Amino acid sequence: MLNQYQPIRVSDLKFQWNKKSNWQLNIAELQIQRGEHTFIKGASGSGKSTLLSLLAGLTTAQTGQIWINGKSLQTSARKRDRLRAQHIGFVFQQLNLIPYLSLRENILLPAYFAKERLQELVPRADMLLERLGLGDIDPDTQANKLSIGQQQRVAIARALITKPSILIADEPTSALDTDNRDGFLQLLIRESEACGTTIVFVSHDEGLRSHFPRTLRMQESAPGVMTCF
Ligand SMILES: Nc1ncnc2c1ncn2[C@@H]1O[C@H](COP(=O)(O)OP(=O)(O)OP(=O)(O)O)[C@@H](O)[C@H]1O
Hints:
Blueprint: E1 8-15, E2 24-32, E3 37-41, H1 48-55, E4 63-68, E5 71-72, H2 77-87, E6 88-92, H3 103-113, H4 118-131, H5 148-160, E7 166-170, H6 178-194, E8 198-202, E9 214-222, E10 225-228
Parallel strand pairs: 2-10, 3-8, 3-9, 6-7, 7-8
Antiparallel strand pairs: 1-2, 1-4, 4-5, 9-10
Helix pairs in contact: 3-4, 3-5, 5-6
The structure holds adenosine-5'-triphosphate.
Keywords: ATP-binding, Nucleotide-binding, Transport
GO molecular function: ATP binding; ATP hydrolysis activity; transmembrane transporter activity
Protein name: ABC transporter domain-containing protein
C-alpha cells in the first residue's frame, strides 16, 4: 500500500547527469519503510551513489518525485538542505571527520546544521561515546589523535547525534578488514535500531548482505537505463 509518510518514497523518477548522456536512472516506484534496513548492491557505475545523492536531495531528478518523511524534495535548494539536515545522517568511506576539532565537536557538527540546540545534545554525544566504547577517551581530544577504528565509531555517533529517521551509508566499510568491518556494521545497526533509524546501505561487498533483511539491486532494464528492484 502506498504511504507518502514513509521515510522514503520514490515515484516515476527519471534522472540523467546531462542531456547528452546515454546513461539514465529510472525508478517507477520505491518505498522504504520506517526502521527498515536496506542493502543496495550493483556493479561499479550502476548508479548506487547517484541514487543516494538523489535521496539526500544533493541532486534533483528531471522527472518524478522523492518524498522524505512525506516532504517532497522537489523544492528549493535551501529547503532541501534543511530537510537533509533534519532527517538524514551520513556515513561515508572517507569518514570526513574534521581533524582539528575534538571528538565531541565532530559529533555535534550535524546538530549545528539541523539548528538543534547544541547544549541539549551534549549529554547525547557523551552517551553515544560511552555506548560505542569511547567512554574512556577525553571528549575534548582532537579527532586526528584517534586510531582509525576509534574514528569510525566517532563517525557513527556523528551520523546518529540528531536521531535522524534515515541513515545513508555509502561504502563505509570498503577500507576495513573483515573483523573491523563486522564490528563496525554491528555497532552501526545496533545504534540505528536504538533510535528507530531506517538504514540505506550501499556496498559492493556481498558478504554484508546477510546483515540486511532487504536487498535492492541496481540493474539495467534497457540499454543504458538503470533501475533498482
Ligand atoms: N557528478 C557526475 N557527473 C556526471 N556523471 C556522473 C557523475 N557522478 C556519476 N556519474 C556517472 O553516473 C553513472 C553512475 O555512477 P555512480 O557513481 O552513481 O555509480 P556507482 O554504482 O555508485 O559506482 P561505484 O560503485 O563505482 O561507486 C556513471 O556512468 C558515472 O560515470
